[in-house]
Amino acid sequence: MNAQHPTFNPPADEDVKIWRYMDFTKLISLFDSEALFLSRADKLGDPFEGSFPLANVLARAFVPAQVPEEFKANFQEAMAKKAITHKRVSRCVAVNCWHMNDHESAAMWKLYLKSDEGIAIRSSYRRLRDAIQHEGPVYVGCVNYIDYQQEWFPEANLLNPFVYKRKSFEHERELRVVLPVFSAASPGREYFEVPTIDHGINVKVDLQVLIESVYIAPGTAKWFHDLVSSAITRYGHTFRIVQSELSQEPIW
Q1: How many domains does the chain have?
Q2: Do the domain assignments include residue 32?
Q3: What is the sign, positive or negative, of the torsion defined by CA atoms of 104, 109, 112, 114?
Q4: Which domain holds residue 128?
């Protein structure tokens, strides 16, 4: 189920359009599993995923005045271990990413498709939130974009790093689904030392609630449009199919 969490902020407009760009095989996987695939955070392709800004890291060297003298050494040791701990946390968090935009994006088509034979699912924040059927808590919120060399963010919660990215990714306008899978340390092991997720996790969703329409990538042949239509019918759905507006001819 979608759960409330102070780290995860919804968009100002809960009906904002969101998009997920994918190839045809991932569409079939979605239909077949009736689940969103959430990738393990450290496998998303961004080495900064789950990390902290420079200011946060530098601040760990300072011991607050209110820490008693007899506990300062323990405090410094704990701060020294933070980097290792937080890097491990990325192996215990799964993420699924969406693009917020009122219109389809030419940049997103190029970024996420390896060929012309792709589709985009159009949904909304409200639809995504309401479609999640996972038994445990799943969080949905907007990503914040900051300068990791100049800015910082609070470290009060282990999930805070997963709603921040570098400003160079600001064009993604990302809304993300996040599922933490934390477990207690086993004998002889520290917390988060052992990954709790292999590659990712499938989170069950109600496809009828989630999918508003299916967009066909620009430049695709008619046979691909027919293939997508056939697949939708075969799985018992009636989703509206829309040819990308980027395929339209200019008017001179």
Answers
A1: 1
A2: yes
A3: positive
A4: 17-247
